[in-house]
Amino acid sequence: MNALPTRKLEAYRYADIDALASVWSDLAQPETIEIAAQQKLQQIWLPSAADVQIRRVELTIHEHASASIFALNTATRYGRIEIDVHLHEGAHFDLHAANIGAGNATLEIVTTVRHLAPAATSRQIVRSVLGGKATGSYLGKVAVARDAQLSDSEQSIKAMLLDRGATANAKPELEIYADDVKCAHGATVGELDREQLFYAASRGMDPATARALLLEGFIGGLWDGLEDPAIRDAASAALRAIA
Amino acid sequence: MLKITNLSATVAGKPILDGLTLTVPAGEVHAIMGPNGAGKSTLAYVLGGRPGYEVTGGSVTFTPARHPGLEPGPAFLGGQSEGRRVPGQARDDDGAVDLLALQPHERAAAGLFLGFQYPVEIPGVSYLQFLRESLNAQRRSRSEAELSGAEFIRLAKAQAALLGMDPDMLKRPVNVGFSGGEKKRAEMVQMGIMAPHLAILDETDSGLDIDALKAVGAGINSIMRAPDKAVLLITHYQRLLDYVKPDRVHVLRAGKIERSGGPELAHELEREGYAEVAA
Question: Which regions of chain B does DSSP assign to beta strands (E)?
Fold first, then answer.
């Protein structure tokens, strides 16, 4: 059984360790998922009603297999989604995830994506909407091994802060040992646009409706690849609760 | 319909409107013309309630005309019927509201429409979703039933057709990738959907080619030319006034109305320039 992590560990620097301690005994060993060569996996991770929600997954994607994960992180106290991905030759991983919270919530998405062999691709899109004194973080490392030529990775990280007391942390990180690779990353932190808010108000939307609609627009593209409306509806409800 | 008395306003501490007085009766179209920097757009934004535009004096009274026999207007396909209810204490017995006491969204619900000189882009939000949320928020605040998705789409498509706009454009994000002319046409489609009592149109003609100008002019006439509606048309040039005939033309200069006249005043301005006419 592994010991409870401390905030000295980089992957736990923003964590709520007290909240983590309450559930750690069930989580010390991460869940493992293996996807056999050529296979495809899609998973949708919806939040539960618990105030502390932690998911730790080790995901191994074999030759020319692919995995798409859609995740919504909205725990009211502490929500942590941690994924350690091993990509074999020609494998693909994509993550579409949102942190949505207010009050004193601590929400984190922590990923390590290891390109172990040539021609694997990964794409991570993370959006955070934070109100009150909430903290939302993305810590994401992409590691490209020496012979993983033609790796292609992307990290797109954006956060929207609704109140002065809210905090967003974004730390995309690259560790590259191959020389013929493409690794893109971008991170922004912003506030709702005043011009857009006035435009919506001038058409009759009260401030809360206008904020919720603009926030849905901000994260909406995350779920574009999905037929199932469950996660889109859950995200909209979470946004309306904090807008 | 609209009575502006001695209105003064500042933007970032700088005086822009300086004792402006203007009355627009129901059933009329008034044009406001004037040189750059006269305060035309500031007037539009003050009437719309934009944050940052501070009123330092004067009053604005808005009296949405009530003609139960005439409502719904020709542009409206929904089930609007009863007299409009305005939130708060701002309304008195004859239906007049103190416009400046209302929040921007309350002004819209009271029947004011502001057409933007530079319509705002909203990536990620479709026009249909944006306008349905807007219209239903207005209807909720007037204690009217909300429109269903199907009812709203029917209304939006009819209004788009009236303005010669491809209804599929309403599925796209608000104004994203629209040309200047398409944005202005979309503003008029919005106006048709909202069916306001009073439209304040800020340089709706700027950036339009001649076909778009005709379409927008025809749209203004069909949506707003009615005994219970009025338009305040803010423009630099006379050319839109060839298609939307104003009942009155006002020259705005240095924050106040310097001169008022009939439609011929617009032609005089076009011929002789603001400096001559004002002198």
Answer: 2-11, 14-24, 29-33, 53-62, 97-98, 112-115, 122-126, 173-174, 198-202, 230-235, 248-253, 256-261
The helix (H) or strand (E) run that includes residue B127 is: helix B127-141
What are B101's two structure tokens? Answer: 């006491």
Q: Is A23 helix (H, G, I), strand (E, B) or coil?
A: helix
- Determine the Cα–Cα distance for residues A86 and B87; give it in Å rounded to an integer: 59
Task: Name the residue facing A202 among B114, B129, B131 (closest C-beta).
Answer: B114
Q: Three-class SS of residue A223?
A: helix
ipTM value = 0.90
Q: How far is CA A233 from the centre of its chain?
A: 18
Within a 13 Å sphere around the CA of B248, how many CA atoms are in the beta-carbon half?
18
In this predicted structure, the answer to whether residue B165 has a pLDDT above a threshold of 70 is yes
The alpha-carbon gap from B279 to the nearest alpha carbon of chain A, in Å, equals 37
The answer to whether residue B77 scores a pLDDT higher than 50 is no
Low-confidence ranges of chain A (pLDDT < 50): none
Residue A14 amino acid letter? Y
Summarize the confidence of residues B95-102 as an average pLDDT.
93
What's the confidence (pLDDT) of residue A27?
77
Cβ of B134 and A221 within 8 Å?
no
The span from the CA of B193 to the CA of B155, in Å, is 7
